[in-house]
Each structure stands twice: as structure tokens, then as C-alpha cells.
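User: Second chain of the day. Same drill as before.
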Amino acid sequence: YYQQSILALLSGELYQSDVALLIRMIVRARNLFTDGNKEEEIHSNDVDMKYSFSRSADIILGIVVENPWIMTDALSSVFQRCPTKLKWRPWRNSTMDRTPCFNARCTAGNVYSMN
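Assistant: Same format as last time:
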């Protein structure tokens, strides 16, 4: 159901609260619901999600960059133990282009990545 909810959110105007919910649902959809019995349905919905996301990527990324807590919140929804304070940094490729990828390192030295 997360995938259908994601598609519904992406069809409208996005605000900070929408993006926080959206990122949380994407993380959960990609990490918690990988049941082999529904692999074809999940893959089909994932393609639709990526297409819809790509149309709103600049808006979503802008909100996430300004509100990095959104990524920590999403990460904590799938990990039992997640640092509460992570400093997220946008990852840039060799030509310094903006990407939808972020990295964070906690005080224990663990690295977290979201794409």
C-alpha cells in the first residue's frame, strides 16, 4: 500500500510534511516489503514511483536539503537502532552535478546512505 500512497502524494503539490511522509514511505517500501510472492507487482509499482518521483525531484530534493531531519526520520522507520542526529550531505558526482543521493556519518563512525 505504500507504493500506491506514494503515487497519490506525487500527483499533487508537495509541502514539507508531504515530502517527509513521502521519503519515509519510499524507504519503507524499498526495505520492508520485499515479499517474493508479489515481486512482479512491486517492480511494476516501483517503475511508476520512479517516473512520478523524477517529475518532482527538484522540489523534493530542495525540501530535503533544507530539512535533513527528514532522512533521519525515514531511516529510523526501518532500523531498530538509528542515531538521532545525523548530518546529511548531498553526494555529488565527479562533475559536481546534484544527485538524489545523500550520505551521513554518525559519531560512532558508521556511514549511512540514501539514494
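DSSP finds four helices and three strands in the chain.

User: Great, on to the next one.
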